[in-house]
Design a protein that fits this description.
- By secondary structure, the protein is mostly helical.
- It has helices at about 1-15, 15-25, 30-35, 45-50.
- It holds the Pfam family HTH_3.
- GO terms for molecular function: DNA binding.
- InterPro entries: Cro/C1-type_HTH (IPR001387), Lambda_DNA-bd_dom_sf (IPR010982).
Length: about 70
């Protein structure tokens, strides 16, 4: 789930993966690892990144229909 949120955040920011990494002073390989599921990113980190970019992460839950 975190990788999908991160991917969406990068896309909505209009930044390339490289520029996104540079903005947060991160190695591009770390961002790539998060996106590929090789590394884990905390939701609190995603929240901070989103806020810095002017976004808010909103999660919702729905009952599945059988």
């Amino acid at each position: 789930m975190e990788a999908k949120i991160l991917n969406s955040l990068i896309q909505k920011s209009g930044l390339s993966q490289r520029d996104f990494a540079a903005k947060f002073d991160l190695p591009e390989q770390r961002v790539s690892g998060w996106l590929n599921g090789v590394r884990n990113i905390k939701m609190s980190t995603l929240k901070k990144m989103a806020e810095e970019l002017g976004f808010e992460i909103v999660l919702s839950f729905e009952v599945r229909k059988s």
